[in-house]
Amino acid sequence: NIIKEYQTGELPLYHMDVYRLDEIEEDIGIKDYYNKGGITIIEWSELIKNDLPDERLEIVIKIIDENTRVLIFNPIGKIYEELCESIL
C-alpha cells in the first residue's frame, strides 16, 4: 500500500509511503489528499518534491542512537512559520 487512510481520530490521517512510486506509472491522486481536511504525512517526500504543496511543515527525524531521536521542523509558508513560532 502506498496510501493508508485512518478515519478514527479527531481528524482524518493520510499516511503515504512514496518510496515505491517508481513502480507505479499512473497518477494515484496524491495531490487530492492535500485538500481533504485531514493531516497528510509523507515518508520519502523528497521523491515527489514537485508534487508537494507550496505551504507545508517538513519534519525530519534524525536517529542519534538506539533510544534518541531529534526532530527538525522546517516550516514552509507563513501559516507554518507562525505555527512553529507559537509552539516552539
Strand content: 35-45%
Instruction: Kindly report the spatial arrangement of strands forming the biggest sheet.
Output: 1-2-3
What's the number of helices? 1
Uncertain residue ranges: none
What's the helical proportion of residues?
10-25%
- Distance between the amino and carboxyl termini: 34 Å
Q: Order of helices and strands, N to C? A: EEEEEH
What would you call the quaternary organization? single chain
- Total count of strands: 5
Gross morphology: globular
How can the largest sheet be summarized? 3 strands, mixed
Structural class: mainly beta
Computed over alpha carbons, the radius of gyration is 14 Å
What is the average of the pLDDT values? 90
Overview of this structure, please?
The strands form two sheets. Strands 1-2-3 form a three-stranded mixed beta sheet, with no helix packed on it. Strands 4-5 form a two-stranded antiparallel sheet. It is built from one helix and five strands. The model has no long low-confidence stretch (mean pLDDT 90). The chain has one helix spanning 78-87; strands spanning 3-6, 13-17, 39-43, 56-65, 68-76. It has 88 residues and is mainly beta.
Reconstruct the topology from this structure.
Elements: E1 3-6, E2 13-17, E3 39-43, E4 56-65, E5 68-76, H1 78-87
Parallel strand pairs: 2-3
Antiparallel strand pairs: 1-2, 4-5
Defining key terms:
88 residues; two-stranded antiparallel sheet; mainly beta; globular; 3-stranded mixed beta sheet; 5 strands
